[in-house]
Amino acid sequence: MKKTYFIINPKSGHKNYLQVKDTIEKYSKNLHPDSLIRVWEHKEQLEELVNEAKIGNYDIVFAVGGDGTVHCVGKHFIGTDINLGIIPNGSGDGISRHFHIPKNVLKALELIEKGQIIRIDTGLVNEIPFIGFMGTGIDAKVAHMFSSLTHRGLIPYIKLAFSEYIKQKTEKYQITIAGQETFEIEPQILSIANTSQFGNGAYFSPGSSAVDGILQICKLDVVPHTKLPIAIYKIFNATCHQLKEYGRWNFKEVWIERSGDDYGHVDGESIRTGKKFCVKIQEKSLNLLIPTLGLRV
Predict the structure, then answer these.
(1) What is the dihedral of CA 41, 44, 45, 49, to 10 degrees?
(2) Could you tell me the pTM of the whole model?
(3) 76 located within any domain
């Protein structure tokens, strides 16, 4: 019988957290009576909840919400032996989708008995950790604006992304990959990938693995309006690497200098990168509960 701790973000997804909480309570009552369920009511409360989870000797600590929730909870367990679980309940759920964690709450809970724990890589940008993606450009601007919306979901996200795309604003970057030469690019989107997708099935680094000790720089130049439908199709069909505007480079550590503003994001959470920043991999740094069956991770 495993001892589990749940941190529920009531602001995630469609704010159906009471239904999710009820499902967790019913499941845990018989199988895991020592479980503790907490609702993350306000920003300052998270540290208190994380500390309670750490000192309680729980087998698995679950982040219940979207990528932002997984980031905010999971970053506290990077470099520890604590196991992180995910109950997906967000707008995009890119991290959980990459690891094939079921969207259905009951099926996600069943991983407690049927799943496996693996040690995954994470990334670090200017000492700020991330699990799935960090980025600048359109996705960073959209993440910044998306965080202030009262109603989230795929449609509002697409509207924000499109409003930024039509501006066709680019930014110059000087990229220095450790052990390689320096080069310059001027894309509309620049992302660093540890996993494969932004969420909602939108793949921006198809084939990326979170257990291979490598991160990817992914860039997309301005796509002509006439090619936009094709580009969108390829992103959702995991074939964006076929676009001539797309580029990708593997690395373990990179230094990036940018010409524009310093908006960035980590797992959808808005940050400021500064004009110069460093990104590096933290290999095998986080324990994560995922399905078995040898699925690619």
Answers:
(1) 130
(2) 0.91
(3) yes
Backbone angles phi, psi at 13, to 5 degrees: 55, -130
Whether 92 and 108 have beta carbons less than 8 Å apart is answered as: no
Cβ atoms of 67 and 95 closer than 8 Å: yes
- Do 136 and 238 lie in a common domain? yes
Q: Which of 65, 23, 239, 233 is nearest to 152 (CA)?
A: 65
Q: What is the mean pLDDT of each run of 10 residues along the chain (297 residues)?
A: 91 81 92 91 91 93 95 97 95 92 96 96 96 86 61 62 68 94 94 93 94 97 91 94 96 95 89 94 98 72
Tell whether 157 and 267 lie within a shared domain. Answer: yes
The residues near 111 (Cβ < 8 Å, ≥ 6 apart) are 85, 101, 102, 289, 290, 291
Rounded distance, CA 228 to CA 16, Å?
Answer: 34
**E strand or H helix at 175:** strand 173-177
CA dist 79 and 81 (Å) reads 7
DSSP 294: T
CA separation for the pair 13, 171 (Å, rounded): 31
